[in-house]
Amino acid sequence: MPLAIEAPPLHTLTVAGRDERFPVYRVFCVGRNYAAHAREMGKDPDREPPFFFMKPAAAVVDAASPTSVPYPTRTKNYHHEIELVVAIGRGGSDIPVAQALDHVYGYAVGLDMTRRDLQLDARDKGRPWEFGKSFALSAPIGSLHRAQDIGHPSAAAITLAVNGQPRQSSDIAKLIWSVSECVAYLSEYEALQPGDLIMTGTPEGVNAVVAGDLMRGEVQGLGTIEVRVTS
Length: 231
Ligand code: MN
Prior knowledge:
The chain is α+β, with helices and mostly antiparallel strands. The protein has a single domain (12-230), classed as Fumarylacetoacetase-like, C-terminal domain (Fumarylacetoacetate hydrolase, domain 2). Helix content is 15%, strand content 33%. The chain is built from 5 helices and 18 strands. The structure holds manganese (II) ion (MN). Manganese (II) ion binds at residues 29, 81, 83, 112, 199, 201-202.
């Protein structure tokens, strides 16, 4: 059957060392998944159940090679959040923690770019976070490394520098909710689908960038991403 309008674009990510690309369906993001970041956001880092928000597939920017993102409209406080990104290759509901990694296609380093002023204003008014979190081009993500090639990292340095100056530095071993636990928990609420991404949360040190800044993010073993902010 013909489409009434032109189909929206498919958003895809580079797969390291391969000619095929990973099609993105949805992007789930975990909030406050490192204790020191929860504290810097003024929240108690006790191990409450994880919570999630979403970005549209159109938020994804392929950052397999150096790229840029425009400074977004309607903000004066545009923040970087460096994160471990998990790609789901096999869907499922009510996935047990012990089997969760079987559903993971691979891993990448990514940025959950945030209009912090809009996010906090919404948070404090009890409103949804979309304008702060879910805007176009807000998720630059590097090459996906397949689990069948690299395994499942549980400890690795995660860092972000801006213009060469260190801003964020932690280890994915400090995730409050592990990758397995995030996959299992999320799958109790929403059937996971191949193509889903999970951004697992950012460590402490989030801060603002301005037009002209160069962000360089790394998760050890997953390579680096370089993203410049343009005006
Ligand atoms: Mn985040």
